């Protein structure tokens, strides 16, 4: 199984949350959507442990099982489809999370997240 990590799943893993650690250690490949990387770096910059958090992130990214996944033109099509679907249902989600969902659906990834609003997207498999 290949998983994409949402920001909160990465944070939980780094804090040693048993469920997240177990999942992340068991998977073959870990994908960090570029949007999540941006959210993490923004959070680090706003906190008081920026250099420590950045160093931990660099170690995480150095793992051969971890890759960063940027959106592309095809992702924009998935984004538009999901945006319209959620809009029609009257249940929009935050823009960054919509991009993360689009990447996960596009690349057939299981999304590790604690955010419940992702469950509104039936095409998305969540762990």
Q: How would you sum up this structure, described in words?
A:
The protein is α/β, with parallel strands linked by helices. The chain has one domain: Rossmann fold (3-Layer(aba) Sandwich). The protein contains 6 helices and 5 strands. Strands 3-2-1-4-5 form a 5-stranded parallel β-sheet. The N and C termini lie close together (11 Å). The relative contact order is 0.20. The model has no long low-confidence stretch (mean pLDDT 95).
Order of helices and strands: EHHEHHEHHEE
CATH-defined superfamily: 5'-nuclease
Overall pLDDT level: 95
Level-1 CATH class name: Alpha Beta
Distance between the termini: 11 Å
Number of strands: 5
Number of spatially distinct domains: 1
Extract low-pLDDT stretches: none
As a percent range, the share of strand residues is 5-15%
Brief sketch in words of this structure:
By secondary structure, the protein is α/β, with parallel strands linked by helices. The chain contains 6 helices and 5 strands; from the N terminus they run βααβααβααββ. It has helices at 7-14, 18-26, 34-46, 50-61, 73-89, 95-106, and strands at 2-5, 29-33, 66-69, 110-112, 125-126.
Any descriptors?
14% strand; single chain; alpha/beta; Rossmann fold; 5 strands; globular; 5-stranded parallel beta sheet; 6 helices; 127 residues
List the helices and strands and how they pair.
Layout: E1 2-5, H1 7-14, H2 18-26, E2 29-33, H3 34-46, H4 50-61, E3 66-69, H5 73-89, H6 95-106, E4 110-112, E5 125-126
Parallel strand pairs: 1-2, 1-4, 2-3, 4-5
